[in-house]
């Protein structure tokens, strides 16, 4: 029924796939709580939320980027560069400027990737695979391969601050997640992203500024990666060039599992956030129940493969449906 609880919840979550993610999340929480009852405590929930907030912030930008039909594999290396740069600058500049510089650096690195993808006109996978190595190499060079030492204690304020008892990274994720959802679903820019990712040629023929969308998406993605890195470095009070190793897998897995089509033109922020939380719960839940945490990597990899396979099967089904409708229209005419 249209007004049944299930239908209402599905509409609130933005679709059946999100309802499936929400149901899976509830089942995961129930299963983990059976083996580890203390897992559902408020204190533990805050710890899990803090852990996923850094991946969640980067996932917002990556969702926009993939919806537009692009991808950035270098975000883990960007994460390291922004973190160590902010920590190094905090030793020379006021910490507020160091924080801003880390975020601005992320935007600049993303913009560099966007410019190359647009100008060279080759797969963003190839371009960002190259910059993944370049950015990581720069992070290693400027730190000589060691963590940044001697960072002033005031640098930690941003990451350790709380608002009404909630840590800053979680607050940032909630606020920016709401903004990202509203922009993607209810603004002209959001509709342009969906249109461009779904059919680039048709979108450009309709007058959509493709270059502006691509560059803005890459820069926004980089800025959010930079923000996540600065918050992490600030909370830890230091940074190392090994920050962000495997970060891109966690982020992209969450985005694809959350329903964003890898080919672009489809997705929602609600789904992405549910996937971020689900993967975080699985990761922390395995540790809480005493299971080897390495299995979390297996789960994330499997989730990514399954999500991509489901996405492909869905697209094939939609294509068959469109062809069937086209045949029926021709037969009727």
Distance between the termini: 36 Å
User: Order of strands across the biggest sheet?
Assistant: 1-2
Q: Could you name the ranges where pLDDT drops below 50 across 5 or more consecutive residues?
A: none
What's the CATH architecture?
Orthogonal Bundle
Please identify the structural class as seen in this structure. Answer: mainly alpha
What is the general shape? globular
Radius of gyration: 21 Å
* Mean pLDDT level: 86
Within the CATH hierarchy, at the fold level, what is the topology? ABC transporter involved in vitamin B12 uptake, BtuC
What sequence of helices (H) and strands (E) makes up the elements? Answer: HHHHHHHEEHHHHHHH
What is the percent of helical residues? over 70%
Percentage beta strand: under 5%
How is the secondary structure organized here?
Layout: H1 5-13, H2 16-35, H3 42-67, H4 75-90, H5 95-120, H6 124-143, H7 157-160, E1 162-163, E2 166-167, H8 168-186, H9 188-198, H10 200-205, H11 210-236, H12 247-257, H13 269-288, H14 295-332
Antiparallel strand pairs: 1-2
Helix pairs in contact: 1-2, 2-13, 3-8, 3-11, 3-12, 3-13, 4-5, 4-6, 4-11, 5-6, 5-11, 8-9, 12-13, 12-14, 13-14
Textual characterization of the structure:
It is a single chain. This protein is mostly helical and 333 residues long. The longest helix has 38 residues, at 295-332. The protein has a two-stranded antiparallel ribbon with strand order 1-2. The chain has one domain: ABC transporter involved in vitamin B12 uptake, BtuC, CATH 1.10.3470. The two termini are 36 Å apart. The chain contains 14 helices and 2 strands. A hairpin with a 2-residue loop joins strand 1 (162-163) and strand 2 (166-167).
């Amino acid at each position: 029924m249209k007004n049944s609880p299930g239908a209402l919840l599905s509409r609130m979550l933005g679709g059946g796939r999100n309802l499936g993610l929400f149901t899976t999340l509830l089942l995961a929480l129930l299963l983990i709580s059976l083996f580890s009852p203390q897992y559902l405590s408020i204190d533990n929930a805050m710890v899990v939320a803090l852990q996923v907030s850094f991946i969640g912030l980067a996932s917002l930008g990556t969702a926009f980027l993939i919806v537009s039909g692009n991808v950035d594999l270098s975000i883990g290396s960007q994460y390291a560069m922004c973190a160590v740069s902010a920590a190094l600058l905090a030793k020379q500049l006021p910490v507020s400027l160091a924080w801003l510089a880390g975020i601005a650096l992320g935007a600049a690195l993303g913009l560099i990737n966007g410019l190359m993808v647009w100008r060279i006109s080759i797969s963003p996978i190839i371009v960002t695979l190259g910059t993944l190595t370049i950015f990581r190499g720069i992070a290693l060079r400027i730190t000589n391969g060691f963590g940044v030492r001697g960072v002033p204690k005031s640098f930690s304020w941003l990451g350790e601050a709380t608002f009404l008892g909630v840590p800053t990274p979680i607050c940032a994720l909630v606020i920016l997640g709401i903004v990202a959802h509203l922009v993607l679903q209810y603004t002209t820019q959001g509709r342009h992203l969906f249109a461009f990712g779904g059919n680039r040629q048709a979108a450009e023929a309709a007058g959509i500024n493709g270059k502006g969308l691509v560059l803005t998406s890459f820069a926004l993605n980089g800025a959010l990666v930079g923000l996540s890195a600065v918050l992490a470095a600030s909370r830890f009070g230091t940074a190392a060039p090994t920050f962000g190793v495997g970060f891109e897998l966690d982020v992209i897995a969450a985005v694809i599992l959350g329903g964003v089509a890898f080919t672009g033109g489809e997705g929602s922020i609600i789904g992405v956030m549910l996937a971020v939380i689900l993967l975080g719960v699985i990761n922390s839940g395995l540790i809480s129940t005493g299971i080897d945490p390495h299995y979390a990597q297996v789960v994330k990899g499997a989730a990514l493969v399954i999500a991509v396979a489901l996405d492909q099967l869905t697209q094939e089904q939609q294509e068959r449906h469109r062809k069937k409708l086209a045949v029926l229209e021709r037969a009727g005419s």
